[in-house]
DUF4424 domain-containing protein
Amino acid sequence: MKANVVTALIAPFVFATMVPTSVLANDTSAVLGAGGLELTTSKDIVMASEDLYLSASQIRVRYAFRNESDRDITTRVAFPLPEVDQNEGSEMVFLPAEDQENFVDFHVTVDGRPVQPKLEQKAVTGDGADVTAAITKAGLPVNAQLPGWQEKTRALPHEVRQHLIKQRLIEADDPGNRSADFDPTWKLRATFHWEQTFPAGKTITVEHRYKPITGGVSSFDESQFNDYKSYCLDNQGKAGVRRLMKQAQAAAQADPQRNPNIGGPSEVEYILTTGANWKGPIGDFHLTIDKGDPNAVLTLCLSGLKKTGPTAFELRRMNFTPKEDIRFAVFDWR
């Protein structure tokens, strides 16, 4: 069963003034976590509100931005995704739409109107070196999870493949075999971006949604409880997980085709702190965490969260300045 290590692709929006042109910011972390809407420091743009919905299957955010200056501000708005390792031999990563360039099914609207962002893709090494030019010069896409990538690599002239191997950009157990599988060694750094004008003295609404990246396959047992101390898994939570284990075992006895074990939890990380650089605090911050199934067990370290429905938990803060990030885990045996 998948242990949905959900790297909540909550990569930040970045607002960079157009003149001079700024480098699009990128946010990375070991677990592919990312953040919410992020502005480069702005003295004029206020985040009037943020309505944030988090689950293991979808992320939705609705922002209201107000330009408090007496002039229109045109910016480059960027949504950088966390870096994705392209080597299948590393930690397993499951892209929501791996056969598409927009592999997280990212959509954005401004004041209700769809925006068609551009997509910038780069290949970077583990130490951050940009190797995009070498890969595209060879005729390969930097997103190695697109259909046909292996076939394109095998079809390269021998000397081109050998050059890529010598540069340690691809690997193969038997590089002389044209039917061998070749593994890329880089990480994909993708950024959606578009130009946006914030009218003087007015508020605009930016909404976006996307699907988080998941990874890993495992089963779960009580010996792993200590691994989730950072999610504040308490005795009540442990009792809930044991209940799920018993339900899984009972279901397997009734149907031998069922898995008698529960998988590892879906882990979601939302980085709030990197986004706290607009003018002042967030006027009205509203958070909803949806555990997906009434039977599931949600665990996290966050005070003030209240259950408002069978699967929903909510928090509201006024004049909110993020001081910590949101991390939670959801246990569900189905």
Observations:
- Residues 1-11, 17-39 have pLDDT under 50 and may be disordered.
- The first strand starts at residue 14 and ends at 17.
- The longest helix spans residues 235-254.
- The chain has two domains: 1-121+191-223+268-296, 132-185.
